[in-house]
Amino acid sequence: MRLPTVAAVVKRALVICTANICRSPVVERLLRRSLDGAVDVDGDAWVVSSAGTADIWPPVDCHTIGAAASVDIDLSGHQRRTLTHDLIGTDGADLILAMTRAQLRVVASLDPYGGSASEHATMVEQVASAVDIVRHGPWAPPR
Prior knowledge:
- The protein has a single domain, classed as 3-Layer(aba) Sandwich (Rossmann fold), CATH 3.40.50.2300.
- It has 6 helices and 3 strands.
- It is α/β, with parallel strands linked by helices.
- The model is unreliable at 1-9 (pLDDT under 50).
């Protein structure tokens, strides 16, 4: 069976929210757990990280820690990071998942390759669909 072309190039995911203390760390941990054992076409494991669009430094929200723990998600050790052009470059994100369209616009403004926010929104939606196909397709790792 042939893999979808777009899915073959994705192996690094970066999850974005505002402060990187609630939503994005939870999604990061969920994706890590969900993609555990999944590999790209070269046999490399998925790498998932997160960052925030705002340059603020509160600790991870205690309510988020409790809610995440109740569904077996451990947020201990999470270090909040601010999204920058350099971070995107160093992390080598192939897939960037933003929690809101406003955050997607911030990502687009940092993108060294250009493109409008709507072009990036379309790209993110297409890649998200491809990831869902990979995650649930017949080639997905057994659970």
